[in-house]
Design a protein that fits this description.
heterodimer; A: five-stranded mixed sheet; B: 8 helices
Chain lengths: 785, 175
């Protein structure tokens, strides 16, 4: 404001003098010339002044902008997300091959001397590993050597370097992604101490030889580049200093206009004036664009080392550092996955330069040149990037954190993901869908699917895949696809019945039923179109009989069932009509996992959980995410229902499963016209929920058993089934599945179910219960009183 | 509490004795930093020699059958230590880690419940006691301790009468 007033005065003076100069023109030409000059100066002066003021203002603005960006981004780090680490202890069900795969996933490399962290070697049935240091949730673990011995499918011993036994030790957890900002830019921020000297010197040597002395730009370099470009008729050389490149990467603008160049230059000079060379170089190392991973732009050498070599920057060899320096010149032109020869040639030139500048000696130069490129698509090869699971992590963190916290505070998020289970789930889903399409001559790619796996005793989500090609089409069906669940809903009705005095042998009528809903008559039918007459409750559940279920549900009351469902899911069903009883209610696979988690855990609700802990950069806990449970079903009822779901597998709609008789439980679900194929099933440790269908909701011709169950089978094949565990119980008896009569396994298809001791059961003629079971029941009955 | 502590110590001594090495070594976080010798007295056979040559040729001590409990005990020990230092959140993290390894061990849920009572979450503590009860079939001591935890929960809820009633019923329960 202070400047505005004098400028205004001058301008008014100018106007007056313009008038007087006009009168003077009529007097003499010499005077005229002088006054013309004066006029010109007077006319230009304000413009010059204005320009100077504007330029100063612009520089101030540039200074603010670039300084703010530099300071702000210096330590602005996306939250890094980790999977669950593998626990190693004697007796753990981990094979040598499992552990070796896991080590490779983490970028450990084979070495005979184990001198460096991040190396391992195999000696017969033993693996010696030099673990990296890692800041865990509880505390820092220093790097150390351990040995793991195997005995078949299990670990038989774990020992420290001293030979002392180690009761329990974790591998470092796999990094599975980070919350980079919405413009898709991911990076790791390194401190100067974490950056190898060779990288710093090599960069200067190759990209900006005068870095240590220039003021942010290099006139000679620019001239040289200009000459080359004019000669070539196109832009071949940038002539940019590292400082200019840093500025360029801040504003992600590739247009090569003159004004942009000038702006960049000015900002580079400002940076040089304001900050130390070392800080600028370090910022460059953290900032430079170094590759592209789908929608994710990979920035900085830290993440670059992980991306190209699946290894921390500090563990890279000379040739690998040279490769990164080669790539940084133009990550798409020098894309080592696409143009390995081109990159190799440039890497060798970088190595030559390093030798010339005496950064490496001749033998190191020779050794390094002899090495192949050896880039591994670390992030892909190990499947170490799980965008679908990350959706759940983000959703669960969003209620506690601002977007800014996640994208810039350098938080470290420890999650429940188990990479081994995730890999199994993805393979099971994609493999089975391909096979189903083949076998049924369906159009390739017409089937879609979703799978979520939890550790049901804790509610922790071990794996999640929201589609066949995870993360690529953007639709996460586990979280967002709400589809009719069909018979998956039935256990809720049977649970409601059990809580109201029914038991597993209670007779139900599987007979025609017709319900008036408003103006219309609702007449459901059984899946097989048959009527089954009087059946025991366990069979109505096991065979998923629609008519028996509707009769039962109508007796209990639709509202009662709906209320029970909302108590279990925390959400009132949208459908309050009798068709709710047959699963005309939409749920997401994640919601189904929450519901079946209650059944699998003996009645405790532990909502599917993805986050174990969040630490800040210093390793201090930022928020707690402990186990949280709430009993929703009385223990005994939950046990009974669980036995019913086992009967589904042994005798009912799940009996086609490879693991039907292996101690598993579950339920199939099919929606109208075979549009949705569902299965939810569990063994002693994992619950898997699978949906198969089409995105456009067209019929896919699959039942729960012919579609989703196949995926689940593949999953369990890969995980290995842990048979369900039952505490010894007095009230468990053998009844014939078809009739509910007491029977023994020698002469009838029986199921083992808890029946209240006072329930009057009849024996199957000629196949009655054994003396032993009579005395057991008698004892139980006596005990009850 | 004192009695439970003693039980744990007794268990640890027992297991330590079985493994043939003095106190159960800690989980990895407590092992030594590079270049620092282990602090345990009575290093097992082959210790000193193996130290310098790395995990070399000497066979490792074999696992015994009872060992699956060892990782759990090591974690519980860590948890105890953290709790004693007043770091209940860390103590909880250790018990949760033990539960991940062995989710059907009602004693672990009971311990988790006790820790949650300490952090002022009686409702969670009670749920965890219930969870432990669901796993306590045939384990009278666990049943008793779970009920005694519920009694403690009742106390914090100002329901002293109920607490007293539970205690009088369960304190001396032996199955």
């Amino acid at each position: 404001m202070a400047e505005a007033r004098p400028r205004g005065r001058r301008r008014s003076t100018g106007k007056r003098s313009t008038g007087s100069a006009g009168r003077a023109a009529r007097r003499s030409s010499g005077k005229q010339q002088r006054s013309l000059l004066r006029r010109l100066v007077l006319a230009l002066l304000p413009i010059v002044l204005v320009a100077a003021v504007l330029a100063t203002g612009y520089l101030v603005y540039l200074d603010r902008t670039i300084t703010h960006t530099f300071e702000g981004r210096r330590w602005s780090v996306p939250a890094v997300v980790y999977a669950q680490p593998l626990e190693l202890f004697p007796g753990a069900a981990v094979t040598l091959a499992d552990l070796e795969r896991e080590l490779r996933r983490l970028g450990y490399r084979v070495s005979t001397d184990l001198r460096e962290p991040g190396t391992y070697r195999r000696a017969g049935m033993r693996l010696d590993v030099h673990l990296r240091a890692f800041q865990f949730m509880e505390r820092q673990r220093s790097s150390q050597q351990i040995s793991i011995e195997f005995d078949g499918p299990r670990i038989s011993a774990v020992g420290a370097a001293s030979g002392r036994p180690v009761p329990l030790i974790r591998l470092d957890p796999a990094g599975i992604g980070s919350f980079f900002p919405s413009h898709g830019e991911d990076r790791q921020v390194l401190t100067p101490e974490q950056v190898p000297e060779l990288l710093r010197e090599g960069l200067k040597s190759v990209e900006d030889r005068k870095f240590d002395h220039h003021m942010g730009f290099d006139p000679e370099g620019i001239l040289r580049a200009l000459l080359v470009n004019v000669r070539a008729g196109e832009i071949q050389q940038g002539g940019s200093t590292l400082t200019q490149q840093l500025v360029k990467s801040y504003y992600l603008d590739n247009r090569q206009t003159l004004t942009r160049k000038l702006r960049e230059l000015a900002m580079a000079v400002i940076l040089e004036l304001r900050f130390e060379k070392a800080d600028i170089l370090n910022a460059y190392i953290n900032e430079a664009y170094i590759g592209q991973d789908g929608a994710r732009a990979v920035h900085g050498f830290g993440l670059g080392a992980q991306f190209y070599f699946n290894r921390p920057l500090g563990e890279l060899r000379t040739d690998q550092i040279a490769t990164l320096i080669a790539i940084i010149r133009g990550p798409s032109y020098y894309n080592p996955f696409r143009h390995p020869q081109r990159v190799l040639a440039r890497r060798d030139r970088v190595l030559d330069r390093m030798l010339e500048d005496q950064l490496i000696d001749a033998s190191e130069h020779e050794r390094s040149r002899a090495r192949p490129l050896e880039v591994v698509r670390g992030a892909r090869a190990g499947g170490a990037y799980y965008p679908d699971f990350m959706d759940l992590v983000r959703a669960q963190l969003q209620s506690r954190y601002q977007e800014d916290d996640l994208t810039s505070r350098g938080l470290r998020v420890f999650t429940t993901l188990q990479p081994r289970v995730q890999d199994a789930a993805e393979q099971a889903l994609t493999g089975t869908l391909e096979r189903l399409e083949n076998d049924r001559r369906l159009t390739e790619g017409s089937l879609q699917g979703a799978i979520v796996v939890t550790a049901h005793q804790t509610g922790e989500v071990a794996a999640l895949a929201g589609g066949r090609t995870t993360g690529f089409d953007g639709l996460n069906r586990v979280l967002n696809a709400r589809r009719p669940v069909g018979s998956l809903i039935k256990p809720v009705i049977y649970l409601t019945a059990l809580e109201r005095g029914y038991h597993m042998a209670s007779p139900l009528e599987d007979s025609p039923v017709s319900v008036r809903v408003g103006e219309r008559e609702w007449t459901p039918r059984n899946f097989d179109g048959e009527l089954h007459g009087t059946v025991p409750l366990v069979r109505a559940l096991g065979d998923s009989l629609n008519l028996a279920t509707v009769h039962l549900g109508m007796t209990l009351g639709v509202d009662t069932v709906a209320a029970r469902l909302s108590a279990l899911t925390g959400r009132a069903p949208d459908n309050r009509y009798p068709s709710l009883l047959l699963g005309a209610e939409n749920m997401t696979p994640l919601e189904v996992a929450g519901l079946y988690g209650i059944f699998a855990s003996g009645g405790f609700q532990m909502p599917p959980k993805a986050v174990i802990a969040v630490l800040d950069e210093q390793g201090a806990p930022v928020s707690q995410h402990p186990f949280a449970l709430e009993q929703r079903i009385e223990a005994h009822v939950a046990e009974t229902l669980g036995r019913g779901l086992e009967a589904v597998m042994q005798r009912g709609t799940g009996r086609s499963s490879r693991f039907a008789q292996a101690g598993t439980a579950g339920k199939t679900g099919t929606s109208d016209d075979y549009r949705d194929s569902w299965f939810a099933g569990y063994d002693d440790s994992h619950l898997g929920v699978v949906w198969v269908g089409a995105d456009d909701n067209s019929p896919v011709g699959l039942t729960g058993a012919t579609g989703a169950l196949k995926v689940w089978d593949e999953l369990m094949m890969r995980l290995g089934v842990q048979p369900l565990h039952h505490a010894p119980a007095d009230d468990v008896v053998s009844i014939e599945y078809a009739t509910g009569l007491l029977a023994n396994a020698d002469c009838a298809e029986v199921v083992q179910v808890p029946i209240p001791a006072d329930a009057a059961l009849q024996s199957k003629p000629g196949c009655g219960i054994t003396l032993r079971s009579i005395t057991e029941r008698l004892r139980a009955w006596l005990k009850k009183d | 509490m004192a009695q439970k502590g003693l039980t744990l110590i007794a268990l640890l001594v027992l297991v330590g004795g079985c493994a043939g090495a003095a106190p159960t070594p800690g989980v990895e976080d407590r092992t030594t930093t590079p270049g620092m010798p282990p602090t345990e007295s009575g290093a097992p056979a082959g210790g000193a020699a193996a130290d310098t040559q790395g995990p070399g040729t000497a066979p490792l001590p074999r696992a015994t059958q009872a060992e699956p409990a060892v990782p759990t005990l090591a974690l519980l020990q860590q948890s105890e230590r953290a709790a004693a230092d007043g770091n209940v959140a860390e103590a909880i993290a250790y018990v949760e880690r033990a539960i991940r390894l062995n989710p059907r061990d009602g004693n672990l849920w009971l311990r988790l419940g006790r820790l949650h009572l300490r952090t002022g979450e009686p409702l969670q503590a009670e749920q965890m006691a219930q969870r432990a009860l669901g796993m306590a079939s045939g384990q009278p001591a666990l049943q008793r301790d779970a009920w005694l935890l519920i009694a403690d929960v009742r106390d914090t809820q100002g329901r002293a009468d109920e607490a007293a009633e539970i205690r009088s019923r369960w304190r001396t329960y032996r199955g």
